[in-house]
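ok so for the tutorial part 2 we go from a plain amino acid sequence to predicted structure tokens. step 1 is just haveing the sequence, like this:
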Amino acid sequence: MRRLGRGPLADIVAVLATFAAVGAVCGVLWWLLVDPAEYTRTLRGGATMMEVELSKRFNADGWYAVIAIVAGFLSGLGVTWWRSRDLRLTTFLLLPGAALAAAVMATVGHALGPENPDVTLAGVARGQSVPVELVVTASAGYLMWPVAVLFGALMVLWSSTGVPGQDQPPLAADEHAPRAAAEEQERTNPLTP
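step 2 — the prediction. this is what the tokens look like for a chain of 193 residues:
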């Protein structure tokens, strides 16, 4: 039986599984850090949200972006360095992996967060509060993952020693080449001073 440790299939599985796992952990972290905004049931049966609660509504997007930027940068850096056997394939997989992580993070956070407030409000008395769902309200927040992942990957791709097993530059590999060339020239042309 063949080991799934080498080859393109192993790279695809490793990169996508890593991003899915990181996205799930980030979804739990997002859920733990966000204090959701709350609707308060009014006397007439409707719902209202006070000013302080409105600021909390944007707080969820802010935490999503911060977590996505940090985790995206670190995972882009780590995955590119770790799966450096085929850098073209790994680089190609970074964007789908980042999209997967963004979707998993949002899904896990939403699943762990409060229920739909419309359903919950129907069962509470007037004056009681109900938390809103944990969702990304600004669609641009999903772009934090791929941008941060690409910056992390660039740090590895631009570094000279960032990739394990990378060859030395040709001049640094043979420091004695200029001296050997001078000695060869002296041996073949004795008139050279």
